[in-house]
Amino acid sequence: MIVSSTHDGLTQTFDGSFGNALWRCLGRRGMLFSECESFDYVQLAPESVLDERGRGDIEEAWFVLRGNGEFIEDGKDPLPVEEGRLVLLSHGTGGRWRACENSPLELLVLALMPASVSRRLPERTPAE
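The line above is the sequence of Cupin domain-containing protein; the predicted structure tokens follow.
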């Protein structure tokens, strides 16, 4: 597995009308020998929003490392999140993450292939 610092291509910073975010890749699919798409660190500045819609082709586990905010799934009430909270997003789920106005929101995200895809793949094992 590759653990990144500020290497080009592994870290992205987003600035826009909703504030800013830092997204850092900690590992990608082929490095992990699993059905994992990626393992990433995300930091949202206070009052920032990260639009997750369009990533519905994967399943995700989001763990809140620090801060307070909410996940807003389309058509549902916002889900408040705080340090230590784990949010599981099934295949086809979309929405937005929003940091509270007084603190950044730091998250770890594990993105996985949905079972409907991974069942059709050949067995993957590391070479000797």
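Note on the example: The chain has one domain: 11-118. The mean pLDDT is 78.
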